[in-house]
Specification:
This is DUF1449 domain-containing protein. It is built from six helices and five strands. It has helices spanning 2-8, 14-31, 51-59, 67-84, 95-116, 119-133; strands at residues 141-144, 154-158, 165-171, 183-190, 195-199. The chain has a five-stranded mixed β-barrel with strand order 1-2-3-5-4. Strand 4 and strand 5 form a beta hairpin.
Length: 203
């Protein structure tokens, strides 16, 4: 146990340890009622040149699973894999160890994707009830939070009282290009993929 703690606090290993610690602190404060459960359920506003980050959010099922649930799983997996690096013949917390954190994070993202996939079923009912209360999404206007082009998947917000509803969106016509903050019309939904297809608003 002492060796594990020492490894967790050595050099670059402090990074996954701090991330996991902050997540644990969040859940502790939620449990004792200090902060609201929805406090960190933000809407993601990413710049147009940050489409890679936007793609990661979609890849991790965000919009279907609460952000803090995904982050909690990712931080735990990342920490566990990072601690397993001490079995390799490299200096704990050293430069090589730091470089290895990059592929470790990528592997953690893949594992998180696998773990969160079945969780979508658990949150689907709440998500559908939330949409029903808003009168459905098809036929409404959505504000895009990223550029969408060449048939790529993105996300958009349906404005409402309180926090906005985040949905996965894709262009109905692949040749259409949508800019961040552009307003579009929700044309239809693919229930199997849980993707909403959008079209341009006619001038």
């Amino acid at each position: 146990m002492n060796e594990l703690i020492k490894n967790a606090l050595t050099g670059v290993n402090i990074i996954p340890t701090v991330i996991l610690g902050l997540v644990l602190l969040y859940w502790i404060t939620v449990i004792i009622g200090v902060i609201d459960l929805d406090l960190l359920e933000f809407d993601f506003q990413v710049d147009s040149h940050a489409e890679v980050f936007q793609g990661i959010l979609v890849f991790l099922n965000l919009g279907e699973i609460p952000f803090m649930v995904v982050l909690s799983i990712l931080s735990l997996v990342f920490w566990i894999l990072s601690m397993m690096l001490y079995r390799l013949p490299v200096e704990p917390g050293g430069f090589i160890n730091g470089l290895l954190l990059i592929p470790t994070l990528i592997i953690s993202l893949l594992i998180t994707k696998i773990i969160t996939k079945p969780l979508k079923v658990l949150f689907k009912r709440d998500y559908e009830e939330e949409i029903a209360q808003e009168g459905g999404v098809v036929g409404q206007l959505v504000i895009l939070v990223s550029n969408i082009k060449e048939g790529r998947l993105g996300q958009g917000e349906i404005e409402r009282d309180g926090a906005s509803l985040l949905i996965n969106v894709k262009a109905e016509n692949e040749e259409d290009v949508f800019e961040k903050h552009e307003e579009a019309y929700v044309y239809r939904k693919d229930d199997d993929k849980n993707i909403y297809y959008i079209i341009k608003i006619k001038e």
